[in-house]
Amino acid sequence: MTCGSWPCGDHAHAIVDAMLTGLVSDALADVIGTVTGADALVAVTPTFSASFSGLFKSFFDILEPGVLKGMSVLLAATGGTVRHSLMIDYALRPLFSYLGARTVRTGVFAATEDFGGPGAAELQRRIEDAVGELRSCLTGPQRQRPADEFEQVTPFEQLLNRGKQ
């Protein structure tokens, strides 16, 4: 299983540049390759205005269509209060469904009170449950990665000769 961890903020400028110009920097291309080449993904975002952060969404906006198709994804978010916990189901889950990913049933939301104190043990249990579901997704048939449409290119000369026959 391949995995990676990276803070979105480290690539904020490159993500915005890619959105504006369509050009992806080498460093951002490495991150995109790590994400799209993984067996599974744990997608975590802070809650912002009762949804995912704009930078988080912008990253997924620059991915080529279909690159996450069939990938198992665990959804998670942080926020100041548990009142925002539904953002996993009304914001994150539809986004990854649109991208063709297979989200695990259990999402993990961590509010301020979940860090330290008695809430920490409950948060740990929720994380372990969700990771267990993600692991079970990886024991079945592996996803078919999208084919590279340019992998087998017909030479231009051969295409020109088709019309002469």
Blueprint (SSEs and pairs):
Elements (H helix, E strand, L loop, with lengths): L11 H10 L4 H12 L2 E9 L2 E2 L1 H8 L10 E8 L7 H12 L3 E2 L4 E4 L7 H20 L17 H7 L3
Helix pairs in contact: 1-3
Summarize the structure.
Helix content is 42%, strand content 15%. The protein is of the alpha/beta class. Strand 1 and strand 2 (51-52) form a beta hairpin.
Describe this structure in words.
The chain has 165 residues and is of the alpha/beta class. It is 42% helix and 15% strand. It is built from 6 helices and 5 strands. It has helices at residues 12-21, 26-37, 54-61, 87-98, 119-138, 156-162, and strands at residues 40-48, 51-52, 72-79, 102-103, 108-111. Strands 1, 2, 3, 4 and 5 form a 5-stranded mixed β-sheet that branches. Helix 1 (12-21) crosses helix 3. It is elongated and about 75 Å long.
Distance between the termini: 50 Å
Helix segment count?
6
Shape: elongated
> Structural class per helix/strand content?
alpha/beta
The major pleated sheet works out as: 5 strands, mixed
Radius of gyration: 19 Å
Share in β-strands: 15-25%
Q: Are there runs of 5+ residues with pLDDT below 50, and where?
A: none
Mean pLDDT: 87
Order of helices and strands: HHEEHEHEEHH
- The amount of helix comes to 40-55%
The count of β-strands is: 5
